[in-house]
Amino acid sequence: MRKREKKPLPLFENVAIIDTSAEGKSVGKVDDFVLFVANAVPGDIVDIQTTFKKKNYAEGRAVVFHKKSELRTETKCEHFGVCGGCKWQHMSYAAQLNFKHKQVTDCMQRLAKIENVEIATVKGSTEQYYYRNKLEFTFSNKRWLTSEDMPLADSGQLQMNALGFHIPQKFDKILDVENCYLQASPSNDIRNFIKEYALKNKLTFFDIKNQNGFLRNLIIRTSNKGEVMVIVSFYERLENEMHALLSELKNKFSQITSLLFVVNGKKNDTISDLKIENFFGKNYIEESMEGLTFRVSPISFYQTNSAQAYELYKVTRDFANLTGNELVYDLYTGTGTIANFVAKKAKKVIGIEYIPQAIEDAKVNSTINNIDNTDFYAGDMKDVLNNEFIAKHGKPDVIITDPPRAGMHEDVVKKIIEVAPQKIVYVSCNPATQARDLVLLKEFYDVVKIQPVDMFPQTHHIENVVLLQLK
């Protein structure tokens, strides 16, 4: 039986790009049909070749530019458009902040139905490049081929090993990265040195489909105190090869203060459940903030933009407006950064976090800063925050909550409403799920202030802080 041929996807001509979407793509419309475009900027007029089509919308790429937007800017990175890390690098930073403000406004007004509260101007990041303190890279023996790579690959002139980032929606393809503008020196030099050393010494790169190879992942963390942590993840334990690579790395880069490794033979890349071994230096690096020191261990969560984390925490502290007499609960406390940051203004702060290792770090961070009015507890938030816990530790006057992107579990929101603190300061990295939670909270609380903070320049992501006051 003859196979039915697929209908070619349509080309839309002379489409005006009018907006951005929450996923970072730009938006055009033809009548009521919506087009999501990866490489366009609002203000462009383009022809769009669709790559995916449904009844009411399609996704595609701009293939012809009839007019280029005034919001466009020159991109720095040679990998832009292939690497999915900096989707808005082709848009001026002022425009990025405007669209991020619009994203927060849409979520607050359209989803949460909060229409009578002014949303403050986004606090922009002083640094728009080299602002991240942590990057994760992946080794692969099947690099992603760009259009320039393909002729070389076909002729056998291109080596196929890569060390870089996952291509969006391609779990088994890695873009080989030469230079990344997200993390300051010596990040690029360390990554490129390891790749060159591996190629020279014929070390095998990981094959995710066949689950074999030697080199698997690389994590580089830097701190605002000038410290550098490198974690090399190996798929198999080959003592001689591991020792030789790590020794070369230690000798080459005097900036490295913490050189660690892990052997991960699992099906996934996570290392939080594995033994992380010390090859050289300390088991941690340290960040400083307003006279406080925060110890960051290999699997600790710490806000990836150190300078903007300080701005975010100042907003959080200002919104809480503590007098020194309050009992504060810090939910999803992580390594206790917010808890320790506000502790000197509170009577007591109690932090709760799912990951036990993070709680140990939070306790250490209190100790090294001589903070004695904090307590930290590990466990699933919806299980820990119960009547017995509150009866034992006291009813909070203020709750600060900084949940993951998924927002708070409905049971946690209901428990907060039941506990009825005078104030809630809700910090979110996802205004959409924050808005969902606010729908439940605003029946009992007035939304008083809203302040977006940009932690991730060149991307569509935005943090948002909301102050709620008990009615």
List the helices and strands and how they pair.
Elements: E1 11-20, E2 26-30, E3 33-37, E4 45-53, E5 57-67, H1 93-111, E6 134-140, H2 149-154, E7 162-167, E8 170-176, H3 187-200, E9 215-222, E10 228-234, H4 239-252, E11 256-263, E12 277-281, E13 285-289, E14 292-296, H5 306-320, E15 327-331, H6 337-342, E16 348-353, H7 356-368, E17 374-378, H8 381-384, H9 387-393, E18 398-401, H10 410-419, E19 423-428, H11 431-441, E20 445-453, E21 463-470
Parallel strand pairs: 3-5, 10-11, 15-16, 15-18, 16-17, 18-19
Antiparallel strand pairs: 1-2, 1-4, 2-3, 4-5, 6-7, 6-9, 7-8, 9-10, 11-12, 13-14, 19-21, 20-21
Helix pairs in contact: 1-11
List keywords for this structure.
about 475 residues; single chain; 11 helices; alpha/beta; 21 strands; 7-stranded mixed β-sheet
* Whole-number mean pLDDT: 94
Distance between the termini: 70 Å
Give the overall form. globular
Residues in helices, as a percent range: 25-40%
Strand content: 25-35%
Number of helices: 11
Question: What is the number of strand segments?
Answer: 21
- What is the radius of gyration? 24 Å
Main beta sheet: 7 strands, mixed
Note poorly predicted spans. Answer: none
Strand neighbour order, sheet with most strands: 8-7-6-9-10-11-12
**What structural class should be given to the helix and strand makeup?**
alpha/beta
